[in-house]
Amino acid sequence: MKKILLVEDDPNLGLLLQEYLQLKGKFEVVRCSDGDEGLQAFTKQAFDICILDVMMPKKDGFTLGKEIRKINEHIPLIFATAKTMIEDKTEAFTLGGDDYITKPFRIEELLLRINALLKRVSEHKNDETSVQQSSFQIGDFVFDVAAQQITYKENTQRLSTKEAELLKLLCQKQNQVLTREEALLAIWHDDNYFNGRSMDVFLSKLRKYLKADSKVEIINVHGRGYKLFIR
Prior knowledge:
By secondary structure, the protein is an alpha/beta fold. It has two domains: 3-125, Response regulator (Rossmann fold, 3-Layer(aba) Sandwich); 131-230, Winged helix-like DNA-binding domain superfamily/Winged helix DNA-binding domain (Arc Repressor Mutant, subunit A, Orthogonal Bundle), CATH 1.10.10.10. Helix content is 45%, strand content 24%. It has nine helices and twelve strands. The chain has a five-stranded parallel beta sheet, with helices on both faces. Strands 6-7-8-9 form a four-stranded antiparallel beta sheet. A three-stranded antiparallel beta sheet has the order 10-12-11. A hairpin with a 4-residue loop joins strand 7 (141-144) and strand 8 (149-152). The radius of gyration is 18 Å and the shape is elongated.
């Protein structure tokens, strides 16, 4: 049984989500009412996924998500927000969030998102690809897909799940064009505007990680997509 950390300050909504997910999704759900309580629970127990309300007292969901990421770089995070501004959705992904859902939402939709994320994580962990597919040489970097990390000389950078998935796609089409639509559908399963914005955030982070090697560059191909270019 998978274990969910649910941090929601609305007691009625929190209880409703907890009961539904435990009944329909057959999850164990630990419910917390604010960010401080949520962080305490996360440090004391092991969870498979976190659902974080953004607007909360004491500690907002974005701050909580950032602190959780410092402890665990790979656990899936879903942010629940009443805001509809693009900046807030971009912030969710910048902090390492894997998905967001805007209030009010259907509980069935939340369950679908939870199952999709858990399935993706499970497939990633159980991926039994060949050595050539699970390890890539990127200039002077070594990209270990299974460990979700890139190593440059003696320095290692851990990657989030989406960063690793995006870099793997770029490596598989090294020096070829990876179309924007292809990447969005493969990783986000939807090429809508908001997912496109979030992908831009992850691309910026990958460029930052790879800048130590001047021979490696992720370039934009106007009107088409991106190319991992290695001189």
